[in-house]
Structures are given as structure tokens and as C-alpha cells.
Amino acid sequence: MITLTGSTLTLEEMRRILFQQEEIQLDTEALKRVQKSRDSVDRIVANKETIYGINTGFGKFSDVSIDEKDVRALQLHLIRSHACGIGDAFPEMVSRAIVVLRLNALLKGFSGIRVEVVERLAFMANHHIHPVIPSQGSLGASGDLAPLSHLALVLLGEGAIWNEGQKIDASNVWKDRGMDNIVLEAKEGLALINGTQAMTAQGVVNYLEAETLAYQSEWIAAMTMESLRGIRDAFREEIHIARGYQEQIAVASRMLEWMDGSQLISAQGEHRVQDAYSLRCIPQIHGASWQVLNYVKEKLEIEMNAATDNPLIFEDGEVVVSGGNFHGQPIAFAMDFLKLGVAELANVSERRIERLVNPQLNDGLPAFLSPEPGLQSGAMILQYAAASLVSENKTLAHPASVDSIPSSANQEDHVSMGTIGSRHAAQIIQNARRVLAIETLCALQGTEYRGVEKMAPKLRAKWDELRKVCPSVVEDRIFHHDVERIADHLYEDTGKSK
């Protein structure tokens, strides 16, 4: 059971919530803060004070006053009109993350929402009531308005939810559980949708998958090193200490651990003086991607525990301030940065694939690792596929955050496009996993030609594990199936605590 406080949620806890389906509970002190904030909103409404989002219109309509009798209708109209998400839905896991992250933000007690609503969100998480949320249509400021409106719809008994991978109408979601639909009071609609939780939720899933992939890329690269009789000297600790990047030092250390005891890895001058950069510079290249991951982790863990709606209520309701915490620029930059870090893991992997299959570069392995070169094509088109994926990644890696289009009659004249960046990062990660799956397939075959009995013990254990997923290539076959099975096998590690 994970306790949500509004300020202490970590990525490892999100891994347990998302991949291990761990339940959540609400911190008692956080609920007290929520109630005090709600009391403030009720007082503002009763006193007929004019406060943005409580008794005014939204965006360009912020100068339109709303009568007390219409505040419920205002919130309902807000949710329905803003629920205009476009395109394919976010994966259900991302939807679950959106629910949890929006709930955690509301628990900070700055949003003026009722305890009843936050408890209903917690019920949704614990009972796997996951909204169907279209993935397109957000500018990333004022937050993720369109996606989060589809979350809010479910509270109202509208919209759609996931049910065993299928989309079903949410009209009976609460009736079936003996509960009433939520009727939104003053400010509650705005509190639910004015935030960065769609881009952040996709970003959390992205990070957890990318971190796993970064670790996996090291043993995959080590197996390629064995296939190509790579030189271990380039991983000596003093080289990496001399430069000083801790991530580079750590990658080199882990690589040496993977290759420890190998009879296939060579010494400097034994077969050649130097390896190509895609082998020799693994600590430098992969280490730089770990620097990206560390940056992204820091930003995500801040944003996961941030108040990102508007206005915010402080000092027991005496101060209600309109600001811009809904602006997704920090996550937009983080996701664009993540795209670069993961795309480079795939780029260098593809270069290692080329070395494995190219008879001019693979140190005596069969051309294209073919069982019968010429009669059988072997891994020839596997390299084509990897090249296609990394080329696609290069277009997806263009930063979404450099774009901005004004909205709301130019009131909202600069937006982050962070949700686009987060979605593109997700696609890059899927592509990169398949590139690394192709490298795995080739490295399995390469080490088999060299002699698996000579492999490092830790890599031999990986080889045995993967051969259950991808049998030895003794004849050309439909390699698509092998790539997908290996990719699925790699993905399964994402749910395991690091």
C-alpha cells in the first residue's frame, strides 16, 4: 500500500502502482488540507467575491462574472466543452498514471476541491476504473485541458472507461457500484483539468521503460562485444575516472561485470589495436544517455508532486492567486531531452548490428550471420529494419517544445507542446526496444558461432534465458516473430524494481 501525501511520490512507487497494481491510500493530513482549501472556496462563493475560475468564465472569458446559482452549470459546461481529445487513446497504463498523478496534485490542498472528489479518484485507482483518454489535442498549457476533461467525465458518469482492454460506456460506472455520479461544485471542474498530468503520466511511463532499456542495452552490447571479440581495455576504470562523468564510470564498471570471465573478449593488440567507436565508446555514449535519464527523473519527480492548476489557494483562503503552474515547459524540455537520449541508444545499437552482420567488419563471422551465405539471407534485412527504425526516431526526436501556437483569442499566447513531446518519446522508446531486440538476436547468433561455452558466466545466463524466447537460427524464417518476442521479453523487465 502506497500512501499519497501530495509531496512524496517517487518513480519507484509509480512503478509499483502501474506495473504491480499496488493500491494507494490517502494521507490523513493531506485530506485535512484539502478540506481547509474547500472551505475557502465555499466562503468565497457565499461572500460573492469575484475570483477567477470560481465565479468567472475561463481563459478569454475570465472577465465574465457568473451568478452563484450557475456555478454548477459552469463546471459541467467546462468539462463537456473541453472534452475534445483527438485520436487514439493513451494506453490504459498511462490513463491509470493520469488518475494517480492528478489525485496526488489535489492532495497538496491548494486547489479547493472537495474531499469527496479526491476519495472518488482514489477509488478509481484502487478499483481499476481507468478513463479512456484520447492522446491528442493538448497544447500543454493551460495544462492538459482536453485529456484531463476525459478523466473528469468519468466522475460525472459520462465518457468511457477501459474494461479488459475494451472501451465501454461509463454511464453506469457508479450505479453498478451503488454510488452516485459526482456533481461538480464551484471550481472543481477547473481543479480537475488545469494541470500537466497527461504529459507527466506519459513521461513517467516513458522514464520507467527507458531506464529499463538503458540497463538492458549494456548486457546486449556486452554480448555483441563477445561476438566481435571486442577489446576490454577500453573499459578500464582509470580511463573513465580521468574524464570524470559518474554515469560513464558506472557504465564501464557494469560492462566489465557483464564481461567478467569471458574467453571471447580480447586484450588490446591481441586481434586489433582498437575497436570501432560503437564498441570502444559504449561507456561514453551510453553514459551520456544516463545523464539524460537522471535529468528527466529529477524533473518528473518534482512535477509528480507539484500543484499545477490555477488559481491556487493559500493562507486559509485569504490569498487566491492566478499564476501559470499549468505551463508544461519543464516537462516539454525533459521529454524532448529524453527523446535524444533514447534515440542515441538505438543509433549506436544499429551501428553494432551492422558490425555483426557485415562480413567486412565482423571479424570472421558468416556474412549476415547466415547459416548458408548466399542461399540463405540470414540477418540481412534485420539490419534494414533497424536502420528504418533509427531513421524514424531522428524525425520524432525533433523538439516539440520549440513550437508554440497562441490559443484562447491570444490570452494563452505561448504553450509548451509538452504532451506531443511526451507522446513522441513513447514512440521512440518502442522503436529503440525493437532495435535492441534485433541486436540481441544477432548477438545470440554471433556468440553461438564463437562458442557459447567461452562466454562470460553472466552473459551465458542471459543467452540461455533468451534462447527460450528466440531459438537458434538454423534456417531462414520469419524474423518478425523473433523480434517481437524478444522485444516483449525486454519490456517485461520494466515492472521489476531496480
Automatic annotation (TrEMBL):
There is a cross-link at residues 141-143 (5-imidazolinone (Ala-Gly)). The modification 2,3-didehydroalanine (Ser) is found at residue 142. It is found in: Cytoplasm. One of its GO terms (molecular function) is histidine ammonia-lyase activity. Contains an active site 4-methylidene-imidazol-5-one (MIO), which is formed autocatalytically by cyclization and dehydration of residues Ala-Ser-Gly. It holds the Pfam family Lyase_aromatic. It is an enzyme of class 4 (lyase). Pathway: Amino-acid degradation; L-histidine degradation into L-glutamate; N-formimidoyl-L-glutamate from L-histidine: step 1/3. Keywords: Cytoplasm, Histidine metabolism, Lyase. InterPro entries: Aromatic_Lyase (IPR001106), Fumarase/histidase_N (IPR024083), HutH (IPR005921), L-Aspartase-like (IPR008948), Phe/His_NH3-lyase_AS (IPR022313). It catalyses: L-histidine = trans-urocanate + NH4(+). Its EC number is 4.3.1.3. CDD domains: PAL-HAL. PANTHER family: HISTIDINE AMMONIA-LYASE (PTHR10362). This is Histidine ammonia-lyase.
